[in-house]
Design goal:
Helices cover about 70% and strands about 0% of the residues. The protein has helices at about 1-15, 25-55, 65-95, 115-150, 155-160; strands at about 100, 105. The protein has a two-stranded antiparallel sheet.
């Protein structure tokens, strides 16, 4: 999931910074971004169902504060994995733009075209993108800390866990 989220973030950023025009790859990049984001939304729903049916592994040893921060970080990641695609979908809808999945079908519009909603949702989506980047970097740094400083198996369990 982390690799997919990082990829969709990068494609979305590049797409948003690419000038439009008749020969521009902007539309292709944005369509790829939307399709992968919708896949992330579907995958996170499956992941949450799985988590509801299967107890997660216990958090690493550490103080109550560290365990709280780790748990809160995980739930924040879930929240962002849902909020990002939904705000993007609503943003596209409020701008009158379709959200297609891999060119196979178009998702229903969440909102009618509305300039005020489009502006708000665009800013919200961009802000959440940067918050997501910060949370992912924090998550990666925490995993590296476990590996290099704590010398425990948290990073290894994240990379090799069989579910």
């Amino acid at each position: 999931m982390a690799a997919i989220i990082i990829a969709v973030w990068i494609v979305g950023y590049i797409g948003s910074e690419t000038p439009g025009g008749p020969d521009s790859p902007k539309r292709l990049l944005i369509n790829i971004h939307k399709s992968v984001a919708i896949a992330v939304l579907a995958l996170v729903v499956v992941r949450l169902v799985w988590r509801a049916l299967h107890a997660p592994p216990p958090l690493s040893s550490g103080s109550a504060l560290v365990r709280f921060i780790a748990g809160a970080g995980h739930w924040l990641l879930y929240l962002l994995m849902i909020a990002m695609p939904l705000t993007g979908w609503a943003w596209a809808s409020s701008g009158g733009r379709p959200v297609e999945f891999l060119g196979l079908f178009e998702l229903p519009r969440l909102l009618a075209p509305n300039e005020a909603a489009k502006s708000f949702l665009g800013e919200t989506h961009r802000t959440l993108a940067w918050v997501t980047a910060v949370v992912i970097v924090g998550h990666v740094l925490a995993a590296i800390k476990h590996w290099l400083i704590d010398k425990d198996d948290v990073l290894q369990s994240m990379l090799s866990r069989r579910r």
